[in-house]
Amino acid sequence: MQFDIILIMKINKFFQISGLALICMASFFLQGPKVQDLVFGAGLIGMGGGILAENTKEISFDRIKLIPDKNWLKGAMGMLVLCTGISILATRIMQPETNETGGTNYCDFFPEQCVGNLDIPRSEMPQLEGEVKENFLMSNLYTCEYISPTNLAPIQNEANYEKILGMIDSALKGIWDPCLNPILTTKDDHVLDGHHRFFACSYLNQTISTFKLQFLSAWEAIAKANIFPGVEHHALNEFNN
Fold this sequence. Notes:
The chain is of the alpha/beta class. The protein is built from seven helices and five strands.
């Protein structure tokens, strides 16, 4: 069954115009990189498909057969645009979800390393840096220990995938060893501060240096640290160092 040539032309123009509209929408009106890419990819598919179909001799339902005519350059351009749109769309659909503030969650890739977490997002976790960390330790009894990551559990339910990869890469290249920079743990063996180093050392299967609080459980340590003077809170893609 062959399409009427006039109907085909109208359909082709519709797809091209709709594709262009989607591309403009993605470029100027939509927010969020994933939504923009999805709409942009759909726009390219519409425009490329319309251009390709416009420059073919036959499209049938019983046999999907595209035969380029003398306008082969336009047909090739349409095919290129179509394939680019499909590639963008497929890549974005298959990509893991990211946090609203940016950054890919490491736990989406390695959920087994996040088992036992207390389901607290990073933005609600206390970040103890420099002098603030020293003062917090001075106000609590702690010991210095080397512990296998398999004997620890995270508290927060997310960590920045890119930052952890950077730490792993530095360790493998001998630039910096994250496992020698002590993390802060609780008496019930949860990680209070230093989750990215913990995940990096867990991936590397190396023991990690810790400052272990002797009398504070995970929930007690969170409550105390969150109101400690100078404590900070960072989103998934925010860091001090």
